[in-house]
Structures are given as structure tokens and as C-alpha cells.
Amino acid sequence: MKFTKMHGCGNDYVYVNGLEESIKNEPVAARFVSDRHFGIGGDGLIIIKPSDIADFEMVMYNADGSRGAMCGNGIRCVAKYVYDNGLTKNTTISIESMGAVKHIEVELEGGQVKNASVDMGKPVFDAKKIPVIGYGEKVIDEKITVGSDEYKMTCVSMGNPHAVVFIDTSLKDFPLEKTGPLFENHSAFPDRVNTEFIRVKDRKNIEMRVWERGSGETLACGTGACASVAAALVNGLVDNDVTVHLIGGKLQIKWSGDETDSIFMSGSATTVFSGEITLPEE
């Protein structure tokens, strides 16, 4: 199988041109290629396929082989892949992921995509749609007991579920490896959850670490950055244009604060290398 390794702010995936390559068992392939010791290494597998409702379809798998509904860093890299590899000449590209279509504007440098801006859609605060159970219609600055500790969280869907937790102490010292899995598998989240731990630096800058369901800690999460800014804004902590500082880099997030308006995300997209790999026997 031919592949390309790409990342957005260190959130790395293995990308496959599904217009040319055929994978018999995609979840098994995702687990294999994502393994950083025995495979290629990545936060998951993304297959680019034709779409009936957009220019292309992004089929995303987490590192554990589970399907993901949306990946903000991944979709920027898909836009870079299809442009850089001559699959489209358009600088505005529509990409479908699990039925939802996003529109990406790419920024070129030397004839290749360097950065991309994505209309990530509207944040959803409806608890039933996220989903999160055991709370009211919205979960904003609500208490949750995780293990032996109590936190306050704001829950948002950006096509996938997020619990945003604000931390006053250093994120570097936060025990994410212990706390992340407890949030992910908490009974309040029937579909599991991505959890963002946030420290607000000022009204235009926040720091973020993220535990993604099915992948563990990643260096960046685009939907998580959008959810974090939305959560911070509804809690009155930030302005409408925020730089999110992640381990792998920076993302620029803009939102009016109106739930009927889309969130816009801008950030880099980088190709690391391309190659071929033999998939294991099923």
C-alpha cells in the first residue's frame, strides 16, 4: 500500500489515496500503521475517497481502529494532499467526513499548500447531541467527579464530543496520562469523549493539552481547539479571535460567540514522507 505521512501541528496521520488504493480491512490497517514501533506511526489512518456530495471524502480512523467523525488537523492535510498531488486545481476544496461537508481555503507557497483555513461548522452545546448524560440541556461550567477528583467542565460537539476542563496550574505537570482515560471512559459519555485541559493565558491566548478518544494524548487536536475556544468564550474568558498553543504548534480560532455562526480554524499542514508498506494478513 502506498501512503504519505502528514501532520498538522504534530497531530500525525497516515494518508492513503483511496482513489487508487484498496484496503480490505480498514480498522485492522489503521491499528497496524498507527503503531509507532511495528508500523509507520501516527494518531490514526485517513483514507481519501471520492464523494457524491463534496470534492472528496475523508475516512478517518483513530489509532485503535475506531472511526472518527471529524479531525480538524487531518482535514487540512487532506486538502494539502489533494492539491499537492494534482487531484484538484481548486484552492477552495469541499471535503466530506461521515456525511458532514467542510470547506477549506488553502494558502500556497512555492506551488504547494502551506496553510489552510477551515469552516468547522457550528459548535453544539445540546447535551443530547454531544452526547453527555446526567446533566441538563447544556453542560456549561458543571461539576464532574473523575476518579477521586472533582473538575468543572463545559461540553461541546464539533462533530465529535468534547469535554473542556479549565486548569489553573501548569499544564506541563498535569497528570494527563492518568486523568485522560478516566474522562474518556466516564459513564457520562456514552460515546466516549475527547478531553481538553486548558489554561487561559489571557483573552487572546490559551494553552491546551488533549486526550483523544481512541488515540490517547496527541500533540494537537483541531476540533478540540475549536471546542476549547467555544467553551472559553461562553464562560466569558476569551475574546472572539484566539491563538491556541498546543504541544505541536499553534492554531488560530475565530468565533463570534453566536451559536448560529461557524467557527473558523487556521493552521499549517505538513508532508513528512511517502512510502510503501505491506499490510498484515487478516
Characteristic key phrases:
282 residues; alpha+beta; 18-stranded mixed beta sheet; 16% helix; globular
Care to describe what's here?
The protein has 282 residues and is an alpha+beta fold. The model has no long low-confidence stretch (mean pLDDT 97). The longest helix has 13 residues, at 72-84. The protein has an 18-stranded mixed beta sheet that branches. It starts with a strand and ends in a 6-residue tail after the last strand. The protein has 4 helices and 18 strands.
Write the layout of secondary structure elements.
Elements: E1 2-8, E2 11-17, H1 26-34, E3 44-49, E4 56-62, E5 67-68, H2 72-84, E6 92-97, E7 100-109, E8 112-119, E9 142-146, E10 149-157, E11 161-166, H3 176-184, E12 194-202, E13 205-212, E14 216-218, H4 222-234, E15 241-246, E16 249-254, E17 264-268, E18 270-276
Parallel strand pairs: 2-3, 4-6, 11-12, 13-15
Antiparallel strand pairs: 1-2, 1-18, 3-4, 4-5, 6-7, 7-8, 8-17, 9-10, 10-11, 12-13, 13-14, 15-16, 16-17
What is the first-to-last residue Cα distance? 15 Å
**What share of residues is helical?**
10-25%
What share of the residues does DSSP label as strand, in percent?
A: 35-45%
Largest sheet geometry: 18 strands, mixed
Order of helices and strands: EEHEEEHEEEEEEHEEEHEEEE
Shape, per Cα inertia axes: globular
Q: What is the helix tally?
A: 4
- Look at the structure and give the mean pLDDT: 97
Radius of gyration (CA) equals 18 Å
Total DSSP E strands: 18
Task: Point out poorly predicted stretches.
Answer: none
What structural class do helix, strand and pairing data support?
alpha+beta
Question: In terms of quaternary structure, what is this?
Answer: single chain
